Q: What sequence folds into this?
């Protein structure tokens, strides 16, 4: 079959690889209809992870069941399914508590496994024509409809970024009426803002520097904050201070102490840019969050931080060690959370929000391309909103487009 194969720093190729096979009675094979490129894939693409050449990328996968093992009982050939990027057993200590992101069974190295991702087990990714799914009864989410319908591009986002964004809003403790700040307007940041709005947040500020991304944030009802135009902490505070009704609602002494937000999400991670100069500062978004959060607020760090970063700015960063603004966070009593999302905890409910017309996460999708154009897609998406990548918000790869072009 054809698949997207990592060839080394800033290079992928679409190559022939062996077809996946049923390896156990609980496996299924799916024919991939849509696979998304994730911002997390770019860390590997840029050689900022331990991914080795030959790795087949792709952890956001959707398709139709082609074959099932003899032990699979709840799905069958022809069923339409989306796969959580977490590969989980369903029966270990963590899975039974809902933390499928830290499954203890599927990866010999660490807790947690995924398709086509560095250190997340021996599983090939789904940016390919076919994909093997272990423990298919547990991992495959059954979907209504048919491939290519009006839900196709919404459903594939249930594999990762919509549940991941919802998880970010959950662990940032977003509740109705809360003011929220999202740092980073990539796909997860935009959907974290979207999730916060669905959950009833009163104000959602989205901080980034890319005009196209900030425009998307404004279109969904968030307040765009361009950090190239000044300190984003100051901009958010000034915006809140300009709201007369809000200011009049405070008791004496409250206005200054509550000039920030109650919830913040770092949706950038270790490749954040410094406020000035364009260089990387892995802690820049966390520093801003620590400054803008009100006392007793909550911070969720959903952006990726690897235990080791070959491209780190110094020896400490290469080992995953960062200068953290703990004093300010501690003195304010800020609750903190971080880590990968347990997709299965949310994907059924988010699927049903989509079906009910309450959510349309595919607003972030910018390109729908055949698998053969994956090298072009990675090159442009890696520009992160600048230059030729300015219109590349979220890219979907559709093997069916390759098949139809061959037929033509």
A:
């Amino acid at each position: 079959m054809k698949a997207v194969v990592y060839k080394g720093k800033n290079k992928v190729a679409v190559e022939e690889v062996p077809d996946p096979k049923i390896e156990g009675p609980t496996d299924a094979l799916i024919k991939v209809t849509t696979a998304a490129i994730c911002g997390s894939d770019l860390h590997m693409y840029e050689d900022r992870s331990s991914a080795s050449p030959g790795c087949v990328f792709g952890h956001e996968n959707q398709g139709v069941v082609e074959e099932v093992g003899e032990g699979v009982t709840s799905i069958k050939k022809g069923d339409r399914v989306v796969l959580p990027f977490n590969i989980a057993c369903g029966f270990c200590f963590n899975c039974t508590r809902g933390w499928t992101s830290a499954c203890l069974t599927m990866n010999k190295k660490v807790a947690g496994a995924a398709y086509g991702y560095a250190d997340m087990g021996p599983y090939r990714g789904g940016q390919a024509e076919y994909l093997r799914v272990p423990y298919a009864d547990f991992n495959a989410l059954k979907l209504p409809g048919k491939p290519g319908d009006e839900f196709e591009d919404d459903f594939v986002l249930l594999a990762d970024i919509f549940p991941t964004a919802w998880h970010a809003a959950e662990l940032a403790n977003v509740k109705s009426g809360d003011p929220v700040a999202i740092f980073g307007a990539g796909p997860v940041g935009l959907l974290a803002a979207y999730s916060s709005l669905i959950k009833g947040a009163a104000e959602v500020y989205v901080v980034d520097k890319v005009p196209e991304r900030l425009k998307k944030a404004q279109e969904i009802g968030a307040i765009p904050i361009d950090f190239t135009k000044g300190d984003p902490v100051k901009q958010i505070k000034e915006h809140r201070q300009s709201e007369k009704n809000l200011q009049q609602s405070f008791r004496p002494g409250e206005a200054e102490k509550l000039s920030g937000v109650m919830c913040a999400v770092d949706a950038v991670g270790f490749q954040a840019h410094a406020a000035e100069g364009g260089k990387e500062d892995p802690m820049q978004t966390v520093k801003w969050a620590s400054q803008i959060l009100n006392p007793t607020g909550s911070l969720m760090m959903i952006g990726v931080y690897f235990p080791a970063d070959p491209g780190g700015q110094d020896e400490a960063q290469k080992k995953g060690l960062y200068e953290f603004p703990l004093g300010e966070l501690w003195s304010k009593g800020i609750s903190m959370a971080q880590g990968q999302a347990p997709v299965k905890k949310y994907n059924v409910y988010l699927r049903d929000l989509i079906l009910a017309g309450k959510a349309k996460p595919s607003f972030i999708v910018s390109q729908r391309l055949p698998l053969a154009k994956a090298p072009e897609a990675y090159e442009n998406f890696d520009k992160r909103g600048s230059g030729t990548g300015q219109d590349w918000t979220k890219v979907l790869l559709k093997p069916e487009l390759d098949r139809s072009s061959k037929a033509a």
